């Protein structure tokens, strides 16, 4: 395991600040079990690692820089590699791989909201001062439409030149990485970087 669990002094500062401490996940206990030589998780602990919100409070509070959250991420990565995932999570990962988003929505619908807002879509080789990358949730959840409207209206009133990538944009991969699917995260990162690097922009 890549995480250095042996710096932990079992002070419990990680657990005392954890927002899910009253659930099944106790990060201090988990580290202690691995310090004692635990080789594999119990069924209960295998479920508990998915309760972690990855807020990193435990890592920030740790006086020995143990990075407890990294243990959870390592265990999730192991679960992904062994296929020990809930059906809902498998569907989200498959959707991200196929369509570039976890919401099981087709890529062609990514900027359907732009029919109303008419924001400039910047293609590879074209130029824009500010290129804006938009979260998958904002693309597909209509409840965020007013947020987009207000954000873009502010930019327009400030005479800021901006544009978006459009349907070619893929998930940023942040949550994919936190789930433990490192390979898919790197693939998404590479796809987005390739597109972004082909667009002439200042920022």
From TrEMBL:
UniProt keywords, alphabetically: 4Fe-4S, Iron, Iron-sulfur, Metal-binding, Oxidoreductase
InterPro entries linked to this entry: 4Fe4S_Fe-S-bd, 4Fe4S_Fe_S_CS, Cys_rich_dom, HdrC_iron-sulfur_subunit, Helical_ferredxn
Lineage of the organism: Bacteria, Bacteria division WOR-3
Any Pfam family matching the protein: CCG
Residue ranges of domain 4Fe-4S ferredoxin-type in the record: 1-30
Coiled coil: none
Gene Ontology cellular-component terms listed: plasma membrane
Protein name (record): (Fe-S)-binding protein
One function term, GO molecular function aspect: oxidoreductase activity
């Amino acid at each position: 395991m890549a995480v250095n669990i042996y710096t932990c002094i079992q002070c419990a500062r990680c657990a005392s600040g954890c927002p899910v401490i009253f659930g099944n996940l106790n990060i201090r206990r988990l580290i202690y079990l691995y310090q004692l030589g635990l080789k594999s998780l119990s069924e209960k602990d295998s479920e508990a690692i998915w309760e972690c919100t990855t807020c990193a409070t435990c890592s920030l509070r740790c006086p020995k820089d143990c990075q407890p959250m990294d243990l959870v991420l390592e265990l999730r990565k192991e679960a992904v590699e062994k296929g020990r995932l809930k059906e809902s999570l498998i569907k989200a990962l498959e959707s991200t791989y196929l369509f570039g988003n976890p919401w099981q929505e087709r890529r062609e619908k990514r900027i359907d909201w732009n029919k109303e807002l008419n924001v400039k879509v910047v293609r590879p080789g074209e130029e824009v001062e500010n290129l804006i990358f938009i979260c998958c949730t904002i693309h597909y959840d209509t409840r965020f439409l007013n947020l987009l409207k207000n954000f873009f209206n502010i930019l327009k009133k400030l005479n800021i030149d901006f544009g978006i990538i459009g349907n070619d944009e893929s998930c940023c991969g942040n949550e994919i990485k936190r789930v433990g699917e490192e390979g898919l995260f790197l693939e998404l990162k590479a796809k987005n970087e390739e597109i972004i690097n082909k667009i002439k922009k200042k920022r």
